[in-house]
Amino acid sequence: MEQIYLAGGCLWGVQEFLKYVPGVTSTEAGRVNGATNTTSSDYDGYAECVRVEFEPSQLTVERLIDHLFEIIDPYSVNKQGNDVGEKYRTGVYSRNPEHLKRVRKHIAAREDADNIAVEVLPLTNYVKSDDEHQDRLTLHPEDHSFCHIPLDLLYKYKNKR
To answer: Which positions, given as ranges, span the membrane (predicted)?
Structure first.
């Protein structure tokens, strides 16, 4: 298993979408690259993210990035849907330099590469989100109204695993 951290706006929808992608073995809502190791401090520069554990023989890093691009506006800076602010920026983070190299190459190969605002950075810090944010849309589907991902897209892979 390998891990990568994906930020795509509000983590509720990102986690709900990614957990059904074939090859993903687990997800966890969290905060990436902030300055503290707690969720109870003031905003410290983090991005909302989802830790994704995946089976590389079933799902490549490149294909995982394609899935992320299904649910985000890759040109938007610090905004996805109604969520606005630095913590809602899009990004890909990993402790594995090879992941980052492959992601950069994959994005660079796109015709729209010059317009993409997704940051690709080494993971320097990760903090698990509080329990109330874990699997939020599974446990509280009524909260989908806060999510930028349309329902039909959100559950695109649910029955394909």
So the answer is: none
Structure tokens at 77: 């800076």
* Residue 147 designated active-site: no
Determine which helix (DSSP H) or strand (DSSP E) holds 71, and give its type and residue range: helix 61-71
The residue among 121, 1, 109, 28 whose CA lies nearest residue 62 is 109
**How is residue 113 written in tokens?**
């590469």
Q: Which of 4, 10, 21, 118 is catalytic?
A: 10
